[in-house]
């Protein structure tokens, strides 16, 4: 431990923050700056190719960024960056390494051998994502086994994921969910005006443009509806540069607007003025976007997958993953029966409480014999 009882922490396995797209990145952006108030100094390893000029403008108390080279080649970027992080950490040691995601977790045994405590935050079983081929899925499963066994403690964001594992894993794990900031509705509609979006005249979906988000299912559902409502998708593509073209080809009736990666006030405007939020994913860890939509009191339709049942919704708010007709029916049903504002209990998703629970994990790991 550092001076006066402070804990020196390192974060690896993410692309970075701020202004970097991704649910795990958003999770860390909200959580890590809160550690400063609790005696934690944090070193965050970021991947240079994903940083923009905005990423260098914001500073946080007791948070230091280490920006290392990486690549955007699918299946290589995480491995390459994690290896660089590992070498750097072995030369510039910390008390605890918090590894986010199971792929980078393959380095957990090296940290343990070096006498560094390891906490793994398990966000989702990445090998279930369709973007990975057979070899990559086998490697991710191997990484999962290594990281679960070698970590001193595992934080699951999804209680259903934790329930899949054996007693030894359960005994050294906790369930700590994602959180949400309750914000005031912005008064401006400048972003909507820029994109010619009519307030309260569109359905919103937010996320990285990858196949597991199921946006093709949602676009097909909107195309099949008699109601000529607009669909707005806020997110950008990663490795598959042809996926956006494919999604656009499905929009035969010109009802879909792709705004690209959207954040800050622009994203707040989209949430605040939407008629409904739809999550069409086939796989999720803990969908923070659902919490964001709920904080804006939006009616919701979500895929009927385990991750969306972490948040209690009526059965009428669910649709079968990958089934555009099921989504069509659910969207029409909710549009007819549920009007804004919808009130949700978000008390357990307070980021300050989540930060407190996470810091307690670090301290327990350090104090364990």
Number of helices: 13
**Unreliable stretches covering 5 or more consecutive residues:** none
Q: Name the overall outline.
A: globular
Helicity range: 25-40%
**Biggest sheet features:** 7 strands, parallel
Strand order of the largest sheet: 3-2-1-4-5-6-7
Question: How many whole angstroms does the radius of gyration measure?
Answer: 21 Å
Overall pLDDT metric = 92
Order of helices and strands: EHEEHEHEHEHHEHEHEHEHEHEEHH
**Estimated structural class:** alpha/beta
Count of distinct strands: 13
Distance between the termini: 15 Å
The proportion of residues in beta strands is 15-25%
Compile the SSE list and pairings.
Elements: E1 7-12, H1 23-31, E2 40-47, E3 63-68, H2 77-91, E4 96-100, H3 108-113, E5 117-122, H4 134-150, E6 153-156, H5 159-162, H6 167-171, E7 173-175, H7 190-194, E8 202-206, H8 215-224, E9 230-234, H9 243-250, E10 256-258, H10 264-272, E11 276-279, H11 288-295, E12 300-303, E13 318-319, H12 324-337, H13 351-367
Parallel strand pairs: 1-2, 1-4, 2-3, 4-5, 5-6, 6-7, 8-9, 8-11, 9-10, 11-12, 12-13
Helix pairs in contact: 8-12
Q: Can you tell me about this structure?
A:
This protein is an alpha/beta fold. Helices cover 34% and strands 17% of the residues. It has 13 helices and 13 strands. It has helices spanning 23-31, 77-91, 108-113, 134-150, 159-162, 167-171, 190-194, 215-224, 243-250, 264-272, 288-295, 324-337, 351-367; strands at residues 7-12, 40-47, 63-68, 96-100, 117-122, 153-156, 173-175, 202-206, 230-234, 256-258, 276-279, 300-303, 318-319. Strands 3-2-1-4-5-6-7 form a 7-stranded parallel beta sheet, with helices on both faces. The longest helix is centred in the middle third of the chain and has 17 residues, at 134-150. It is globular and about 65 Å long. It starts with 6 loop residues before the first strand and ends with a helix. 42% of the residues are buried.
């Amino acid at each position: 431990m550092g001076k006066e009882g402070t804990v020196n922490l390192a974060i690896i396995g993410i692309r970075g923050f701020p202004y970097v797209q991704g649910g795990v990145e958003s999770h860390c952006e909200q959580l890590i700056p809160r550690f400063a108030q609790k005696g934690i100094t944090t070193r965050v390893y970021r991947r240079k190719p994903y940083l923009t000029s905005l990423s260098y403008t914001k500073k946080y108390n007791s948070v230091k960024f280490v920006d290392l080279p990486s690549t955007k080649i699918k299946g290589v970027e995480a491995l390459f960056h994690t290896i660089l992080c590992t070498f750097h950490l072995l030369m510039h040691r910390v008390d605890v390494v918090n590894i986010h995601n199971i792929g980078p977790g393959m380095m957990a045994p090296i940290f343990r051998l070096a006498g560094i405590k390891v906490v793994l935050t398990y966000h989702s079983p990445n090998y279930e994502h369709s973007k990975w081929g057979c070899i990559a899925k086998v490697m991710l499963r191997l990484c999962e086994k290594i990281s679960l066994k070698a970590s001193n403690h595992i934080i699951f964001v999804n209680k259903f994921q934790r329930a899949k594992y054996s007693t030894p894993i359960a005994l050294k794990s906790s369930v700590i969910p994602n959180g949400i900031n309750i914000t005031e509705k912005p008064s401006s509609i400048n972003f909507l005006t820029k994109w010619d979006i009519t307030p309260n005249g569109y359905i919103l979906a937010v996320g990285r443009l990858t196949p597991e988000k199921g946006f093709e299912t949602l676009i097909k559902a909107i195309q099949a509806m008699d109601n000529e409502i607009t669909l707005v998708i806020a997110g950008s593509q990663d490795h598959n540069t042809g996926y956006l073209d494919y999604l656009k080809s499905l929009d035969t009736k010109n009802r879909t607007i792709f705004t690209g990666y959207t954040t800050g006030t622009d994203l707040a405007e989209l949430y605040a003025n939407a008629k409904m939020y739809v999550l069409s994913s086939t796989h999720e860890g803990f969908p923070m976007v659902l919490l964001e939509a709920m904080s804006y009191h939006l009616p919701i339709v979500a895929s009927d997958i385990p991750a969306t049942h972490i948040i209690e919704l009526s059965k009428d708010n669910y649709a079968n993953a990958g089934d555009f007709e099921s989504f069509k029916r659910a969207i029409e049903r909710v549009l007819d029966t549920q009007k804004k504002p919808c009130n949700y209990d978000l008390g357990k998703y307070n980021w300050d409480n989540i930060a407190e629970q996470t810091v307690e994990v670090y301290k327990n790991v350090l104090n364990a014999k």
